[in-house]
From TrEMBL:
One of its GO terms (cellular component) is membrane. Keywords: Membrane, Sugar transport, Symport, Transmembrane, Transmembrane helix, Transport. Residues 24-473 form the Major facilitator superfamily (MFS) profile domain. This is Major facilitator superfamily protein. It comes from Tripterygium wilfordii (Thunder God vine). Gene3D superfamilies: MFS general substrate transporter like domains.
Length: 506
């Protein structure tokens, strides 16, 4: 029996966190490294002069032209297409990945994601023209699409309900670690003589892809998949005993079998999820990833080095600032892992929202008063902006960053789980693409007002959580439907449906 420490699931399922489940979830969470590495690398290489000279000479000339506004230096549709092409591929892949995940299991999806990312990294590192560069990005998008669809589901299904938040947040922690590693690599490769450092940055994406690909081969299947796809009730029971560290798993197994029986009657989960009784889950699968993107976090993640170049930092200082931001974000995600199952999801969502709003207002005010169309800001104000960007990133990284993946992955019944996660990932990619594609133009036209724009959305999403999101901590994933029947608003919809179902059966 794997070692661990005993827990009780709040009077629900028996079990303990075992070494086996921790190691399995740590390996699966490596899927986040792909996403994080790409976010960090793409933001860094687009600020490297050798990269701009080779692929985006127009942007390089704009940067050297003192008559161009600070806010418009990097405004280029081709440059934003390089960044956002990955998310177009990820959008379509996530919908296709739903079929793979539901019919073949979570494990093959994770494996396919690693292989696609591996090929994309090779193309990016060897690129000789923009077309080859973007083709590599598209393949990276395929890899990220598979990983983002399958990994959060895998983590939520393997984790004990009492510690599901901490374990699932490991995905966001891996994203943060990937971004920090990428920023450190960019800082080092930028100094390589000969101007080919960007090739090393892009090609080294093969390292996390290889880790995930090899690790996925050895991942165990989740108990949910064993029941749903293989009718392997005995295998599922043995797996539950292994991952929970106890032989007392019959209650959880019975719930899994019941959920699986319902799921097998569903021919089209995408058609099923639009039914009224799943309305709360459908709303959350759209609203949460939408709000996660309009926090403005990807503005910082993708373009932090460019923003720091805009306010007067040098190339190396801009890349090092990205490292600092990444470390702050990763540390904050780790804090979230420690407290999310104690304080709950709603508290972190709202506290993080208030923290992000305050820092966005301060950054916007400093840039509005200190940064004109030409020249820079003083060193003191530049470091003040960096400080509040770090405050903003920390707020996101213990709230909307990890919880934006956690909550959607834990709220769906088994029969709609894969479809619901695909909708979540697809919506995330849609708005990631739109923001990545339009940000530089928005910065050029809205200037410092851009931070107030995103701040307005932070107000809306914090109110949304306060009014419409029930608390899901410590609720077993197969019994999650009860939180909607007890919520002041959603019970008006789901409760009526439940009553109607009872009448129909009488």
């Amino acid at each position: 029996m794997a070692g661990g420490f005993t827990i009780t699931s709040g009077g629900q399922y028996s079990g303990r966190i075992t070494t086996f489940v921790v190691l399995s979830c740590m390996m699966a969470a490596m899927g986040g490294l792909l996403f994080g590495y790409d976010i960090g690398i793409s933001g860094g290489v687009t600020s490297m002069e050798s990269f701009l000279k080779k692929f985006f000479p127009k942007v390089y000339k704009q940067k050297e032209d003192s008559s161009v506004s600070n806010y418009c230096t990097y405004d280029s549709h081709l440059l934003t297409s390089f960044t956002s092409s990955l998310y177009v591929a990820g959008l379509f892949t996530s919908l296709f990945a739903s079929k793979i995940t539901s019919s073949l299991d979570r494990k093959p999806s994770i494996l396919f994601g690693g292989v696609a990312f591996l090929v994309g990294s090779a193309l990016g590192g060897a690129a000789v023209n923009v077309e080859m560069l973007i083709l590599g990005r598209l393949l990276l998008g395929v890899g990220v699409g598979f990983a983002n669809q399958a990994v959060p589901l895998y983590l939520s299904e393997m984790a004990p309900s009492r510690y599901r938040g901490a374990i699932n947040n490991g995905f966001q922690l891996s994203i943060g670690i990937g971004a920090v590693i990428a920023n450190l690599i960019n800082f080092g490769t930028e100094k390589i003589e000969g101007g080919w450092g960007w090739r090393a940055s892009l090609a080294l994406a093969a390292v996390p892809a290889s880790i995930l690909t090899i690790g996925a081969i050895f991942l165990p299947e989740t108990p949910n998949s064993l029941v749903l796809l293989h009718n392997g009730h005995e295998k599922a029971k043995l797996m539950l005993q292994r991952v929970r560290g106890t032989t007392d798993v019959q209650e959880e197994l019975d719930d899994l079998v019941k959920a699986s029986s319902i799921s097998k009657t569903i021919d089209n989960p995408f058609k099923k999820i639009i039914q009224r009784k799943y309305r709360p889950q459908l709303v959350m699968s759209i609203a949460i990833p939408f709000f996660q993107q309009v926090t403005g976090i990807n503005v910082i993640a993708f373009y932090a080095p460019l923003i720091f170049r805009t306010i007067g930092f040098g190339e190396s200082a801009s890349l090092m600032s990205g490292v600092v931001i990444g470390v702050i974000g990763t540390g904050s995600t780790f804090i979230s892992m420690l407290i999310v199952d104690k304080l709950g999801r709603r508290v972190l969502f709202m506290v993080g929202g208030i923290q992000m709003l305050a820092s966005q207002i301060i950054i916007g005010c400093i840039m509005a008063t200190q940064l004109g169309d030409h020249g820079g800001v003083s060193k003191g104000y530049a470091y003040l902006i960096l400080t509040f960007i770090c405050v903003y990133v920390s707020g996101f990284s213990w709230s909307w960053g990890p919880l934006g993946w956690l909550v959607p992955s834990e709220i769906f019944q088994l029969e709609i789980r894969s479809a619901g996660q695909s909708i979540t990932v697809a919506v995330s990619f849609i708005f990631t693409f739109l923001i990545a594609q339009t940000f530089l133009a928005m910065l050029c036209h809205m200037k410092s007002g851009l931070f107030f724009f995103f701040g307005g959305w932070v107000v809306a999403m914090t109110l949304f959580v306060y009014l419409l999101l029930p608390e899901t901590k410590n609720v077993p994933i197969e019994l999650m439907d009860k939180v909607w029947r007890e919520h002041w608003f959603w019970k008006k919809i789901v409760g009526e449906v439940m009553e109607q179902s009872k009448e129909d059966t009488v």
